[in-house]
Each structure stands twice: as structure tokens, then as C-alpha cells.
């Protein structure tokens, strides 16, 4: 087992060689399934944050903010 290296600010956006090899071995379908799961997870996290920060918002308003954050990264 390879011990994970501590992440630094600059290393956070760089795919490590070990991970690149793992992803390269996956099929297109497997990579899409992983990406879709990551997208759903990020969306749920953002939704929970918005609801916690702004409990007065309606469901439609929450979804609007979530969509904006997901599409613009803010």
C-alpha cells in the first residue's frame, strides 16, 4: 500500500501519478460513474451548506443558488 502524501495548496489541483494510473486503467463507463458520483456528492454538500446558512429560503431559491454555485464555482 502506498502511503498518501500530505496535500499542499499547490498539490491539491494536481493528479498524482498513482491516481493517474488507476484512472487510466478504468473504462470510460467507470470513469463517468465516478465523475457522476463526485458531482452528486458536491451538489448535496453545497445544498446542505446553503440550507444551513439560509434556512429562510424556499426550495426553489435553494436550488437556484446551488445551480449557480455549481455552474460558476462560487
Poorly predicted runs: none
**DSSP helix fraction:** 55-70%
Report Rg.
Answer: 17 Å
Globular, elongated, flat, extended or rod-shaped: what is the shape? elongated
Number of helices, counting only DSSP H or I runs of 4 residues or more: 3
Beginning-to-end CA distance, first to last residue: 36 Å
Average pLDDT reading: 88
Question: How many strands?
Answer: 0
Largest sheet: none
Instruction: List the secondary-structure elements in sequence, H or E.
Output: HHH
Give the amount of beta strand, in percent: under 5%
Going by helix content, strand content and strand pairing, the class is: mainly alpha
The oligomeric state of the chains shown is single chain
In short:
With 74 residues, this protein is mostly helical. It has a domain at 26-72.
Plain-language structure description:
It is a single chain. The chain is mainly α. It has a domain at about 25-70. Helix content is about 65%, strand content about 0%. The chain contains 3 helices and no strands. It has helices at about 15-25, 30-55, 60-70. Helix 2 (about 30-55) crosses helix 3 (about 60-70). It starts with 16 loop residues before the first helix and ends with a helix. The model has no long low-confidence stretch (mean pLDDT about 90).
Amino acid at each position: 500500500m502506498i502511503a498518501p502524501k500530505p496535500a499542499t495548496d499547490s498539490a491539491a489541483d494536481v493528479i498524482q501519478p498513482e491516481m493517474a494510473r488507476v484512472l487510466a486503467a478504468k473504462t470510460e463507463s467507470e470513469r463517468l460513474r465516478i465523475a457522476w458520483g463526485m458531482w452528486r456528492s458536491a451538489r448535496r454538500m453545497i445544498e446542505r451548506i446553503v440550507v444551513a446558512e439560509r434556512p429562510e429560503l424556499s426550495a426553489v431559491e435553494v436550488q437556484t443558488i446551488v445551480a449557480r454555485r455549481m455552474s460558476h464555482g462560487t
